[in-house]
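Crash report, auto-generated. Payload:
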Amino acid sequence: MNDIDYESIKGIANQLRIHSIAATTAAGSGHPTSCLSAADLVAALFFGHMRYDPKNPHYYNNDRFILSKGHAAPLLYAAWAETGLFPAEDLLKLRQLGSELEGHPTPRLPFVDVATGSLGQGLSIGVGMALCARLDNLDYRTYVLLGDGECAEGAVWEAASLAGFHHLNNLIAVVDVNRLGQSQPTMLGHDLNAYRKRFEAFGWRTEEIDGHDLDEILEVLAAVGLGHQPLVILAKTLKGGGVSFLQDKEGWHGKPLSKEEAARAMVELQPMARSGIGHAIPAPNQLPAPKNEAPASYPATAYKPGDLVATREAYGNALVRIGGADARVVAMDGDTKNSTFADKFNKKFPDRFTECFIAEQSMVGVAAGFATRGKVPFASSFACFLARAYDQIRVAGISMANLKLVGSHVGVSIGEDGPSQMGLEDLAMMRAIVGSTVLYASDAVCAEKLVEQMAAHKGICYLRTSRPKTAVLYKNDEAFPIGGAKVLRQSAEDKVTVVAAGVTLYEALKAADALKSQGIGITVIDAYSIKPLAREVIKAAAKKTRNLVVTVEDHYLEGGLGDAVAGELSADGIQVHKLAVRELPRSGKSEELLARYHIDASAISNKVKALV
Amino acid sequence: MNDIDYESIKGIANQLRIHSIAATTAAGSGHPTSCLSAADLVAALFFGHMRYDPKNPHYYNNDRFILSKGHAAPLLYAAWAETGLFPAEDLLKLRQLGSELEGHPTPRLPFVDVATGSLGQGLSIGVGMALCARLDNLDYRTYVLLGDGECAEGAVWEAASLAGFHHLNNLIAVVDVNRLGQSQPTMLGHDLNAYRKRFEAFGWRTEEIDGHDLDEILEVLAAVGLGHQPLVILAKTLKGGGVSFLQDKEGWHGKPLSKEEAARAMVELQPMARSGIGHAIPAPNQLPAPKNEAPASYPATAYKPGDLVATREAYGNALVRIGGADARVVAMDGDTKNSTFADKFNKKFPDRFTECFIAEQSMVGVAAGFATRGKVPFASSFACFLARAYDQIRVAGISMANLKLVGSHVGVSIGEDGPSQMGLEDLAMMRAIVGSTVLYASDAVCAEKLVEQMAAHKGICYLRTSRPKTAVLYKNDEAFPIGGAKVLRQSAEDKVTVVAAGVTLYEALKAADALKSQGIGITVIDAYSIKPLAREVIKAAAKKTRNLVVTVEDHYLEGGLGDAVAGELSADGIQVHKLAVRELPRSGKSEELLARYHIDASAISNKVKALV
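Recovered output after restart:
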């Protein structure tokens, strides 16, 4: 990096400002001043420091860049246009329906690994990428540009803590401290020292600079990678920096300039602007690409019908089984690994396991980071605690991330620990994630096969596992394709179709036996795939039982299995009667609670009898 | 506090240990070693320091205590039993279905303000209580006992930051640094200095002590309230502390002792145990109780039919309008107040507004804290960002908190900012909260009246507001009771019932006009109350339209209005056809996106025609 032409980079920085203003003015919306504060930082990173192939943004050893302050999207787009990746004229299509240059970055663009725009999420994803670089023996570095306002998000400090703990000196955070938030000044304003103390306390090396002084910026960047700590560059900047009538002024957040204002800004910026210089620092290419191919097959499972195995334990068994055949599989947990049984994988493949401690947001971010690098990350916790990371999961949906989530300890069947530990809204939460697959295993064979399906299926998948031991129902060669269901009991005289999954499937089978002895036949379906739902299987069964369906689930009444079945099948005239948890549950024994909240065999029998 | 008998407190601490072990052994589950580490701290707080009326845990000026490490519930229960509030024999009913001494604390118990057990949430609630003490000119203090493991949660640092910013010297955090998490040692182990640096960097006064040395504990407690910072007491403890074969040993998390082990522990503990001393430090009683009564009425709204007003702006207007009449109303926002229009309240009643910066978890915790003190807190952000606080909202449900949440910028109708800013899963998320009320205003009058309903209704309420301006539909004297719906168009020949809310209601009305001109009548219903749903209103209308219902919503397909209607009415033979956002949306103009994702008037017309 001896040949850096400071004047050229200064010129590009102004060109990025010009692009950012022009694009947002053309769009009539956007955040130009949030771009301007970071323009010098981005120019220095993209044109004077980072090593990458601008023709191939996905190259495996490119330095990575995450724009955590996603509202500065026009700046990112401008930088890539200036590398030569696409024509600068396209920047004027910003925010138009036909353009992939959206209001906030999404991976529809080849140079964007993860969607940003919900603040505070970028750093944990960067931690995942940096950990993955170590795992893959690659020497790319990961850069995360944060806004100062987003440093109020706890997720930033979860990520900072984990990065410090792992001494990730291949991770660099740059904080654009422009002092002004959306609606008022930030909590810490320009007090760089306050930020410094926080990052140092979390184990980081810190540098304080003037974020508009390219000498200072390039100097601290030249020392990236030194030492054994992650580095944060705290850059004092001015929001709207570089334009006299914008900079450091309140009231400009998220506002485009009028054409006249834009013209005035151009007059200030153009004399120092330069374009067409391109990018000259190649990606390091001495290290081989990681092998991230799916295996042809996995070893078989070996359960015996009737064996008592909790699906959460089967999850741990499956991770170990497929992990041996599939080097892409990595796992992480939030200090519940002895309960989720992710610990089995940790013991077998410690290098591929990340303990994220009690920090679920960070855990999901780390997993999403691994996913961007071609891994298949399985992140587990109690189902209810995944709610802590719901915004991260939501944004992973927008990222179309290849993320695998596993929630254990669902429903009242966990028993005595009480409602704070019961996952009772996880199906609702996960069904509403765009592009998600939602799975719910009843027995160990099904759980193991669903883990295989999750590894093979690209996208966000969620597996719901249970605390109690349940009897193995299926043979080891049974297949469980996503979108399927199993009809476990069916006869010509059946009066009602009962759809269940997890612990309630066993209650439905018990109810079927009890009802049969009373001369009432019911069809019982294991709906192990909640989304996509096996609508044709359920519909066909329901048509044979006078369109009558009873759903029974260890979940609240809203948004779970019952709503899924009703929402998909009511248009076909299927009548869905829901059994679910309808009130705030209490501590008690598992079986007591299934009875009290009317989702046990007796409740199913009573419901069926009421319908017959 | 001159009369503290150190020996007595030491004796009580051991009695609390004995109770904790006995109760968990009787229950056969629980976390005795997590109780033992904090026993000396709790004994000192409850019997040597905190000021409260043990006969009246709800007394307005009692010092507050939050057990953020909720799994140490048996210790909390033991302390209150020792104050004399209830018989110590009851402790042996721990975790039984008939007992309110549940696995983790809930406000079913009079001495519990908020449910805990999902870690990292207590401190932000404490911040809310401490801020409320200031607002109410009361001198109670708020104590929060945290585990060390939960300090990995970002929510802790959001709360710490806000407490430091507000110089809350009436807030005291005590961290039980017992070194051991659930599945392995914590990230920081016994490194008190690391915790000290973190809290100091976030603006706290810190004290490091031996958490088993009562002299040290009582000495630092004696200096509570000094200075202008919140105080954190970092207490080095041993998990299982006080019992030789438990203390500082791995593998004991969440495990009760066997009867034999319990007997051995008792032999060690009983010689120093004391009971029946009770509590002697009264609550401060020189200050008057706050007036937290609901007003008899609120001023009327004054909109004109056809006025264009965004429901988010009507929310801001409503807050100001009812805030003038109702001193209970407080508000908070996460640096979006100029977009949610909470800023209107901030400008009018700055003392009753808390800017929580970009930290939604903290915001919801602060609101829940205010709610425990008799206030009616309205917390607002973009709907999608409330997902960041979903676990806090979930636990607020368990707390039966009187919390009001308002999410703006819902759905694709926000336009160009793109999917990261679109609330498209908020209805699913909020419907699944136990005991929640979910409201969705279409016009300004409805929005204002629903804010009144929220203030009057005890429990968690969520109001969904939209970004675009919409025409006022209703007269100022229209009533909008929770659980209601409005039939806006209906005639005898209607073929289909269309159920909508928010921006899609206007699309449905447009479709009704267009279809009418083609000789097709439709019933149009404004389902402003999503939960509880006006099922009888919708059912009655549907019965008149051959049981055919079309729902249309600016929300994903899963868990929203369509699932609500189908889930409630399919059992009655109503056939529900859902129009909703079915894929990851893009940036674009609001009307372009409504069309592209098939939730506009044209899509409704096409669906109706396909059904006719």
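Post-recovery validation: Chain A has a mean pLDDT of 97.
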